[in-house]
Amino acid sequence: MRILVVNPGSTSFKYRLFSLDGEQVRLVARGGSERVTDYGAAIDRALGELAEGGHVRGAADLDGVGFKAVFGGDLSGCVLADENVEQALRATADLAPAHNPPYADALRVFRERHPGVPRVAVFETAFYQWVPDHARRYAVPDAWYRAGIRRHGFHGASHKFVAERSAELLGREDVAAVARRLYLDGPRRLSGAPLRIISCHLGGSSSVTAIRDGVAIGTSMGLSPQSGLPQSNRVGDLDSAAFPCAMRRLGLTMEQAENQLIRESGLLGLSGVNNDLRDIKSAADRGDARARLAIDVFVHSLRHWIGAFWFELGGCDALIFTAGIGENNPWLREAACAGLSDLGLRLDLEANAGAPPGTNLAASDSRIRVVVIPANEELVVARETARFLAARRSVA
Which residues contact 297 (CB under 8 A, 6 or more apart)? Predict the structure, then answer.
């Protein structure tokens, strides 16, 4: 089965073509465009590149197109990406303004270019379908909840890959099997001690997720991708009174206040440098106090969520770091793990500084493992798209 996975960003378009035979997956081709203003042109360029490479000469060479859709409100899971999905993405763009419009545009273009090729949306919120109600609800009037004001969770494809891969690395094939088939079969009870994973997706946007036996039970992100840890230029968690207070005291309109929280806050707003942690760390190392503050706030929030989920899980078997910041910054992992020896976690500083991904970075006497797992969201989307299409064919 050949699955094309596309990832339209606010100004970019990236794609990967996978060949799947059961659980065996091979990356066939990859590419993309930057500074995109016309998604139709970007998609046509990508299809042209695939044709020139002899990979996809027409619709007959594609079994499906998978989309890592971000947010559709009550619409979630792994679903056929028809016009209803396009409408749902546009209707909820107020909560994912940087993500939903490009995805809706890309869905429309593929529908027009190759109407006979199935399109599948794997929603970022899908991994959180089984989070218990007490971890999803805000203490708001019931009418607000019915209007969709609840904790949805994001980065689901990344955390799902962590759930699968961490179980494999820890020798729990039973858990890995549950995680792999989760969207088709749902969670199931397993015998023996539960596998408790805390997954830290740290990148341009960041989140922490608690995973028990391959299933998410809680997440740091809430109603929108603007919540949880401080993001690169989005605020993260904020007291609800801050919004109207800032509007009154600074004379801001709602649109101005919202724009500042979405585009001028987070690590950018704290540091005054920019929104790239590499530049912020360099400035902090030179003695820039605001840059140091931005790092300290980020680490504090990260440790807050790790601690909260450690208690919620009743312990931790492995602390996982993934995505660009989590994978490439030993100093950040060291800061996150500092002072946890009484809880059974001791980091091996030498391993943390140079061991390859998949290696246990904890000391030999540590009860908790620390592992870097490179993010592979596209692989998850390809597998889920293939499973979804195979399941549809089996009942057709």
Answer: 230, 270
Residues 323 and 200 in one domain: yes
pLDDT tens digit sequence for 92-113: 998 988 889 999 999 999 999 8
Instruction: Write the pLDDT tens digit of every residue in 187-198.
Output: 999 998 999 999
Query: Are residues 26 and 164 both part of a single domain?
Result: no
User: For residue 234, is it within any domain?
Assistant: yes
Give which of 153, 183, 159, 222 is closest to 66, Cα–Cα. 183
- Using alpha carbons, list the distances in angstroms from residue 160 to 22, 114, 211, 219, 383: 18, 29, 9, 12, 12
Contact 301, 237 (CB under 8 A): yes
- For the stretch 4-53, pLDDT in tens is 999 887 678 899 999 998 778 999 999 988 888 888 899 899 999 999 99
27 domain-assigned: yes
Q: What is the mean pLDDT of residues 312-323?
A: 97
Containing structural domain, residue 92:
2-123
**Please, what is the angle between helix 100-113 and helix 83-91, to 10°?**
160
* 321 part of a folded domain: yes
* 160 in the same domain as 119: no
pLDDT of 302: 98
Does the residue 116 lie in any domain? yes
pLDDT at 144 over 90: yes
| Closest by Cα among 264, 286, 284 to 275 | 264
Domains: count for the chain: 2
Whether residue 335 sits in one domain with residue 201: yes
C-alpha–C-alpha distance, residues 44 and 268, integer Å: 35
Strand order across the 119-122 sheet: 24-34, 12-21, 2-8, 64-67, 119-122, 78-80
> Which amino acid makes up residue 214?
G
pTM value > 0.90:
yes
Whether residues 216 and 290 share a domain: the answer is: yes
d(CA 165, CA 358): 9
